[in-house]
Protein backbone atom coordinates (compact mmCIF):
# COMPACT_ATOMS: atom_id res chain seq x y z
CA UNK A 1 0.00 0.00 0.00
CA UNK A 2 0.88 3.54 -0.50
CA UNK A 3 1.87 5.75 2.40
CA UNK A 4 -0.41 8.52 1.18
CA UNK A 5 -3.40 6.24 1.15
CA UNK A 6 -2.53 4.97 4.61
CA UNK A 7 -2.22 8.50 5.94
CA UNK A 8 -5.48 9.44 4.24
CA UNK A 9 -7.33 6.44 5.72
CA UNK A 10 -5.81 7.04 9.15
CA UNK A 11 -6.90 10.68 8.96
CA UNK A 12 -10.45 9.63 8.03
CA UNK A 13 -10.48 7.01 10.85
CA UNK A 14 -9.14 9.66 13.27
CA UNK A 15 -11.89 12.13 12.32
CA UNK A 16 -14.58 9.46 12.48
CA UNK A 17 -13.28 8.32 15.85
CA UNK A 18 -13.10 11.95 17.03
CA UNK A 19 -16.67 12.55 15.77
CA UNK A 20 -17.98 9.39 17.50
CA UNK A 21 -16.13 10.34 20.67
CA UNK A 22 -17.53 13.89 20.59
CA UNK A 23 -21.06 12.67 19.85
CA UNK A 24 -21.43 9.63 22.12
CA UNK A 25 -18.59 9.45 24.64
CA UNK A 26 -17.72 13.07 25.44
CA UNK A 27 -21.22 14.31 26.60
CA UNK A 28 -21.76 11.57 29.24
CA UNK A 29 -18.17 12.04 30.46
CA UNK A 30 -18.65 15.82 30.74
CA UNK A 31 -22.00 15.26 32.44
CA UNK A 32 -20.40 12.90 35.00
CA UNK A 33 -17.53 15.36 35.53
CA UNK A 34 -19.97 18.26 36.01
CA UNK A 35 -22.07 16.23 38.44
CA UNK A 36 -18.95 15.28 40.37
CA UNK A 37 -17.79 18.93 40.39
CA UNK A 38 -21.27 19.98 41.59
CA UNK A 39 -21.28 17.36 44.39
CA UNK A 40 -17.81 18.45 45.49
CA UNK A 41 -18.91 22.10 45.52
CA UNK A 42 -22.03 21.19 47.54
CA UNK A 43 -19.90 19.19 49.97
CA UNK A 44 -17.50 22.10 50.43
CA UNK A 45 -20.40 24.51 50.88
CA UNK A 46 -21.99 22.16 53.44
CA UNK A 47 -18.66 21.89 55.24
CA UNK A 48 -18.35 25.69 55.34
CA UNK A 49 -21.93 25.95 56.54
CA UNK A 50 -21.22 23.30 59.19
CA UNK A 51 -18.12 25.19 60.34
CA UNK A 52 -20.13 28.41 60.57
CA UNK A 53 -22.87 26.60 62.49
CA UNK A 54 -20.24 25.13 64.79
CA UNK A 55 -18.78 28.56 65.48
CA UNK A 56 -22.26 30.00 66.10
CA UNK A 57 -23.04 27.08 68.43
CA UNK A 58 -19.78 27.70 70.32
CA UNK A 59 -20.68 31.38 70.71
CA UNK A 60 -24.22 30.51 71.81
CA UNK A 61 -23.01 27.87 74.25
CA UNK A 62 -20.53 30.37 75.72
CA UNK A 63 -23.41 32.85 76.06
CA UNK A 64 -25.62 30.22 77.70
CA UNK A 65 -22.80 29.23 80.02
CA UNK A 66 -22.21 32.85 81.00
CA UNK A 67 -25.93 33.37 81.52
CA UNK A 68 -26.15 30.19 83.61
CA UNK A 69 -23.21 31.31 85.76
CA UNK A 70 -24.81 34.73 86.28
CA UNK A 71 -28.13 33.09 87.12
CA UNK A 72 -26.43 30.73 89.58
CA UNK A 73 -24.60 33.68 91.14
CA UNK A 74 -27.89 35.59 91.43
CA UNK A 75 -29.50 32.57 93.08
CA UNK A 76 -26.65 32.41 95.59
CA UNK A 77 -26.94 36.14 96.33
CA UNK A 78 -30.72 35.80 96.78
CA UNK A 79 -30.24 32.78 99.04
CA UNK A 80 -27.74 34.69 101.18
CA UNK A 81 -30.14 37.64 101.44
CA UNK A 82 -32.96 35.29 102.37
CA UNK A 83 -30.78 33.59 105.00
CA UNK A 84 -29.87 36.95 106.51
CA UNK A 85 -33.52 37.99 106.53
CA UNK A 86 -34.54 34.73 108.20
CA UNK A 87 -31.74 35.12 110.74
CA UNK A 88 -32.79 38.71 111.50
CA UNK A 89 -36.42 37.63 111.83
CA UNK A 90 -35.42 34.82 114.18
CA UNK A 91 -33.37 37.22 116.30
CA UNK A 92 -36.26 39.67 116.41
CA UNK A 93 -38.70 36.93 117.37
CA UNK A 94 -36.32 35.64 120.05
CA UNK A 95 -35.84 39.16 121.45
CA UNK A 96 -39.60 39.73 121.56
CA UNK A 97 -40.13 36.37 123.24
CA UNK A 98 -37.38 37.10 125.78
CA UNK A 99 -38.91 40.51 126.53
CA UNK A 100 -42.31 38.89 126.98
CA UNK A 101 -40.91 36.23 129.31
CA UNK A 102 -39.02 38.86 131.34
CA UNK A 103 -42.14 41.02 131.61
CA UNK A 104 -44.18 38.01 132.75
CA UNK A 105 -41.53 37.08 135.30
CA UNK A 106 -41.46 40.66 136.62
CA UNK A 107 -45.25 40.70 136.88
CA UNK A 108 -45.19 37.37 138.73
CA UNK A 109 -42.48 38.67 141.05
CA UNK A 110 -44.49 41.82 141.80
CA UNK A 111 -47.57 39.74 142.52
CA UNK A 112 -45.54 37.53 144.86
CA UNK A 113 -44.22 40.67 146.59
CA UNK A 114 -47.76 42.01 147.00
CA UNK A 115 -48.93 38.64 148.36
CA UNK A 116 -45.99 38.50 150.74
CA UNK A 117 -46.73 42.05 151.98
CA UNK A 118 -50.37 41.14 152.51
CA UNK A 119 -49.36 38.02 154.37
CA UNK A 120 -46.94 40.03 156.51
CA UNK A 121 -49.65 42.63 157.22
CA UNK A 122 -52.04 39.89 158.27
CA UNK A 123 -49.41 38.33 160.47
CA UNK A 124 -48.46 41.75 161.89
CA UNK A 125 -52.08 42.55 162.66
CA UNK A 126 -52.41 39.22 164.46
CA UNK A 127 -49.20 39.95 166.37
CA UNK A 128 -50.33 43.50 167.17
CA UNK A 129 -53.69 42.26 168.39
CA UNK A 130 -51.97 39.56 170.40
CA UNK A 131 -49.50 42.08 171.80
CA UNK A 132 -52.23 44.57 172.63
CA UNK A 133 -54.21 41.78 174.25
CA UNK A 134 -51.29 40.81 176.40
CA UNK A 135 -50.54 44.42 177.29
CA UNK A 136 -54.09 45.28 178.19
CA UNK A 137 -54.78 41.86 179.55
CA UNK A 138 -58.05 41.82 178.01
CA UNK A 139 -59.30 40.43 174.81
CA UNK A 140 -59.86 42.66 171.84
CA UNK A 141 -62.72 41.66 169.65
CA UNK A 142 -61.54 41.81 166.01
CA UNK A 143 -65.06 42.33 164.76
CA UNK A 144 -65.58 45.43 166.88
CA UNK A 145 -62.24 46.92 165.99
CA UNK A 146 -62.08 46.09 162.27
CA UNK A 147 -61.59 49.73 161.36
CA UNK A 148 -58.69 50.03 163.71
CA UNK A 149 -57.08 46.91 162.25
CA UNK A 150 -57.61 48.21 158.71
CA UNK A 151 -55.78 51.42 159.64
CA UNK A 152 -52.90 49.41 161.07
CA UNK A 153 -52.73 47.37 157.86
CA UNK A 154 -52.68 50.51 155.77
CA UNK A 155 -49.89 52.02 157.87
CA UNK A 156 -47.81 48.88 157.52
From TrEMBL:
It is a single-pass membrane protein. The keyword Transmembrane applies. GO terms for cellular component: endomembrane system; plasma membrane; proton-transporting ATP synthase complex. It holds the Pfam family ATP-synt_B. Keywords: ATP synthesis, Cell membrane, CF(0), Hydrogen ion transport, Ion transport, Membrane, Transmembrane, Transmembrane helix, Transport. GO terms for molecular function: proton-transporting ATP synthase activity, rotational mechanism; proton-transporting ATPase activity, rotational mechanism. InterPro entries: ATP_synth_B-like_membr_sf, ATP_synth_b/b'su_bac/chlpt, ATP_synth_F0_bsu_bac, ATP_synthase_B_chain. SUPFAM superfamilies: F1F0 ATP synthase subunit B, membrane domain (SSF81573). Gene3D superfamilies: 6.10.250.1580. The keyword Ligase does not apply. It is found in: Cell membrane; Endomembrane system. The chain crosses the membrane at residues 6-26. F(1)F(0) ATP synthase produces ATP from ADP in the presence of a proton or sodium gradient. F-type ATPases consist of two structural domains, F(1) containing the extramembraneous catalytic core and F(0) containing the membrane proton channel, linked together by a central stalk and a peripheral stalk. During catalysis, ATP synthesis in the catalytic domain of F(1) is coupled via a rotary mechanism of the central stalk subunits to proton translocation. Belongs to the ATPase B chain family. PANTHER family: ATP SYNTHASE SUBUNIT B (PTHR33445:SF1), ATP SYNTHASE SUBUNIT B', CHLOROPLASTIC (PTHR33445). F-type ATPases have 2 components, F(1) - the catalytic core - and F(0) - the membrane proton channel. F(1) has five subunits: alpha(3), beta(3), gamma(1), delta(1), epsilon(1). F(0) has four main subunits: a(1), b(2) and c(10-14). The alpha and beta chains form an alternating ring which encloses part of the gamma chain. F(1) is attached to F(0) by a central stalk formed by the gamma and epsilon chains, while a peripheral stalk is formed by the delta and b chains. HAMAP family: ATP_synth_b_bprime. This is ATP synthase subunit b.
Amino acid sequence: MNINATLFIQTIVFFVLAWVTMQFIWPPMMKAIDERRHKIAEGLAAADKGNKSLEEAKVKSAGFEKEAREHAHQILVDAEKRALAVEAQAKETASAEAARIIAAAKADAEQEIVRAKESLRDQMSVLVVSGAEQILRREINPQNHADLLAQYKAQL
